[in-house]
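Re: the request from the purification team.
They wanted to know what the chain is likely to look like in 3D before they choose a buffer screen. I agreed to run a prediction and write the result into the notebook, where they can find it.
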Amino acid sequence: MSLPPLSILYLGAAGGTCLDRANALRRLGHQVTHIDARGLLPASVWIDRITWRLGGNLLGGLFLRALRRRIAGQRFDLCYVDNGEWVTPGVLAALRRQAGRVVNYNIDDPTGLRDGGRFRAYRQSLPYYDLSVVMRPENVVEAKAYGAGAVQRMWRSADEVTHAPRALSAQDHAKWDAEVLFLGTWMPERGPFLLALIELGVPLSIRGPNWHKAPEWSALQPYWRGGAVQGDDYAKAIQCAKVNIGLLSKGNRDLHTTRSLEIPALGALLCAERTSEHVGMYEERREALFWADAVECAEMCAFALADEERRLAIALAGQQRVKRNGHMNEAVLAKILQAALQQQ
């Protein structure tokens, strides 16, 4: 069932996957007023330190005053809060006076332990949302324990535009071609795994920030090709890699990540840890490659690199599957809006 055009206040980051979701709502025909949540607070690094260490609830009053100035005199059918680390019960009370429904969508693990105090305001506010959308079964149980009413679990999603394959030039290939690529931020468990792949002979390239922090940096540095990659460059880097390694965030209790959808959506080959969610998304060796440890990952890389026709066929089948599964922004957001409007 298609929805009539809605007036939506979108409260979330002005970039990344958050911006993708705001743009997807526009493509669905809705009128979206997008306010950068972080932009409502001072640019000082202390704001981020307070949020992560002590909790965004300590900044709720400052956030609310800035928000009131931005939305004064406006009325919305729905407010879509993406993340919500500074949205306190007081902020929600103000939003309710100007929006018919208030929804939260959180792609992180806001009821888990990894991020310290960052999501304290989120947890305090759970009872006051009309609908809370989370990524993990554990989040559903824990959100309800914090007093949430309607909670819905969704899979992550790729974007129809941001993660559409690009036409690649010779210059693109010269800059981005890789045999096996890991594109992502350094995390403590990732250094030993990638070093093991290198020692097993995998022709690895690493891109992403903070890798200089790895204890294994001296061994990994020759394989590091640069820091954060965004926008068209992100898409091209993934497309130009013959094999893309998908690693999970262990601290976030992930069984799949956004890369699990974005890599296949771009028509590239996903080679990720074998989890219950990954094997539910894709047929192994036909739509993606999976592994249990570094040894099997190296074997899967060799399997893919040995036969180009087979590798391309698996990548194409994965791209078709992610679309069939409905793991794309427009489909997911349409479901969220419908569920929110059904709440009493």
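For the purification team: The first helix runs from residue 16 to 27.
Please add any questions underneath this entry.
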